[in-house]
Design brief:
Elements: H1 3-17, H2 32-51, H3 61-83, H4 97-126, H5 132-137, H6 139-160, H7 164-183, H8 191-219, H9 225-262, H10 265-270, H11 273-281, H12 289-300, H13 304-343
């Protein structure tokens, strides 16, 4: 109901206002071997990052095998692209410091962006007790902050002629501040305070998003501008996927240790070990009304004392989840901080006035 009206509006704007550009038709030789090698590099990597710690252990033969296969295919991809007549990804573009630095920064910022998008709603729902619908809605202020930051950043970039380094410094710095503030949240944090923190994070992210895309487009020849732009977006996506895998591992480990260490003895004595293990693996009682109802029935049989123990269990769950999510945000802060350092190495090139 939201996407369809906006989608129709975008289609109409595209039909009536987008310039009718017909580029010169040049016969190209499609790099099929490079495409296949890239797919065989990325897909096993994504599968390994998605399954590790969930379906299989990180050091299981299945996960290690996928990582090894992905690494081998990456070497094959590099070899193919080095000799391809028209490579799908010209490796020589990474010799340009603007492209290489932008790719590295975008990779790290993808980590921070996807971490915020996934774990902010979980925090509102699991720790602050919001509903699933409301928790997803709390991403809206972050997205609005991204839009505002992106508009301001684009205008400044075009009017000042391309000061990537200092504008990136401001944007990444604001985003780092937002993730640092998120890492300091507690169970007593109000909804308004949490929203303020995610708006700051989104605003900083919005400032940085146009910078490195425009920097790359400005640094490469026009004939490979599409390749360079897609490569920049590719690094952001891969950074996000890798970031979510790392963040998920951090979350699970910290949640388990905090939950086991903080669980009252009275609760442990009445809960079957299998039930505790399932809660540690997936604390659904904090986000699923059905799971909470099933858990309540387990304690209702104990009378008034049982409901007290249930409250203690839920409090321990929230404290453990709060500790785990804020640690994820701190890891994200460190990653964004690394992007801030790398940004200093980007080469500033004045924006060109024509293609």
């Amino acid at each position: 109901y939201i996407n369809i009206p906006f989608g129709i509006l975008i289609i109409l704007l595209f039909i009536f206002f987008f310039p009718h550009v017909r580029p010169e038709v040049i016969k190209r030789k499609i790099d099929y071997p490079g495409m296949v090698a890239l797919i065989l590099t990325v897909v096993p990597l994504l599968l390994a990052l998605s399954w590790a710690g969930v379906e299989y252990d990180w050091l299981s033969p299945q996960i290690l095998g996928l990582f090894d296969f992905s690494a081998v295919m990456f070497l094959v991809f590099v070899l193919i692209e080095s000799y391809a007549e028209e490579p799908i990804l010209p490796l020589w573009i990474f010799r340009d410091r603007v492209v290489s630095v932008s790719s590295a920064v975008t990779f790290l910022l993808g980590f921070g962006m996807f971490t915020a998008i996934i774990f902010v709603p979980l925090y509102f729902q699991g720790v602050l007790g919001s509903s699933a619908t409301a928790s997803g809605g709390f991403l809206t202020p972050m997205m609005l902050g991204m839009v505002v930051g992106g508009v301001i950043s684009g205008q400044i970039l075009s009017r000042t002629g391309g000061h990537y380094r200092w504008q990136g410094l401001v944007g990444i710095g604001v985003m780092a501040l937002g993730t640092y503030l998120l890492s300091g949240m507690a169970m007593g944090t109000t909804h308004a305070t949490a929203v303020l923190f995610i708006v700051i994070t989104g605003f900083g992210l919005g400032i940085t998003m146009p910078i490195y895309t425009i920097a790359v487009q400005n640094a490469v020849p026009y004939r490979i501008m599409g390749v360079a732009t897609a490569t920049n977006q590719f690094f952001r996506s891969i950074g996000g996927v890798l970031g979510l895998a790392i963040a998920g591992s951090v979350l699970n480990n910290r949640f388990t240790s905090e939950f086991v260490g903080g669980l009252p003895q009275g609760v442990q004595s009445v809960m079957p070990s299998g039930s505790l293990d399932s809660i540690m693996d997936n604390p659904q009682a904090l986000v699923s009304p059905e799971a909470l109802e099933q858990l309540s029935q387990t304690f209702q049989s104990l009378g008034e004392q049982g409901m007290i123990l249930l409250d203690q269990l839920l409090t321990t769950l929230r404290e453990a989840l709060n500790s785990a999510i804020t640690e994820v945000f701190f890891v994200s802060f460190c990653v964004v901080g690394a992007a801030l350092v790398i940004n200093f190495f980007i080469k500033e090139i004045p924006l060109r006035k024509h293609l």
